[in-house]
Structure formats: structure tokens, C-alpha cells
Write the C-alpha cells for this entry.
Amino acid sequence: MGNEIDHDVADVMLVVKPHTYRRWLSPKAKARSPKPGGRSGTAEDTVALILRMAAENLSWGYKRIFGELNKLGIAVGLTTIRDILKRSDCPPPPEKTKSRPSVPWSKFVSAHMESLVACDLFTKPVYTLRGKFDAYVLVFIHLGSRRVYMSLPTLHPIDAWVMQQANAFCESFIGTCQHSA
């Protein structure tokens, strides 16, 4: 390098220290082999697992495979997964679209108004001779008719009480309800 400019390296010395320049000129520097650079490759069993996940789960993208590998305790970068799949000509991950429903919510509700029921549970403080208690009331509103069904209050709501109130609502408003216990 210095030969090209007759070792007039005064300007170069502003960028490189003299010791570095002398090291470049030493015969040992020319004989040295370059250090192997870069990172070690991904283990073959990990590559095989990534390819298997991609082949068996076509709807999975890079991030899903990344997450599943993390669950298994295998640390592989997202770009590594992408590069492995690109090298093996795997199909690209599915495109995510932010699709909106084809029917707006207001139209859906109005179309199904006769079959929709809203339900709510609220509490009301009740004062007795033994103190203040919270009474729980279950309310059903049939959206089509706007009719309201209010359950009998209870101080201890349990799942059997909720099922009993739901059955009573079904019998009074809808006729008979088919449910699975």
C-alpha cells in the first residue's frame, strides 16, 4: 500500500496510527491467513424442524414458527427462519389482511333482532335486620320485542341459580329452550 505512494504516508497517518502502518508492512502480516468470519450456521436438526413446521402448517408465517420454536426452547432469529424457508423454496407465508366484515354490525343486528337476547347481572344493596347484603339480579332483554325479564334476586348466585333463571326466561319468552347442561 505504501509502495504506491512511495511510503509518503503523512496524510494516511492522520487516519491510521504509525504502529498499524508498520504492522501492515511486516512480512508476518502477509503470511497470516484471514480469520474465519461470520456466525456459525444453524444446526441441521433445527433447519429440518423449521422446514417440517412450514410444510405441515401452511397457514403459519415466520412469526408463528418463531413463537413455536421459542416455546420449545430453540433460539432462532426471525430473519434466520425467513432465510431458511426462502433457500428451500417454501411458499411465502400467507398475507394478513385487515378485512372488514362484509355486513356492518348494525345491519347484522337488525337482521337477527328477533333471535338476539341481551343479558346482564347487577347487584342492589339490601338492608335487613342482620345488616347490608348485595342482592344479585339477572336481567334478560329480548331485542326484537324489547321485553324484559328480571329474575328473582338471590344473595348467593351459583351456576345452578343462573341455569334456573335462564330456563325460566326461555320458557316465558321463547317457549322452550334447548340447552346442554
In short: The radius of gyration is 37 Å. The chain has seven helices and three strands. The first strand starts at residue 117 and ends at 128. The mean pLDDT is 81.
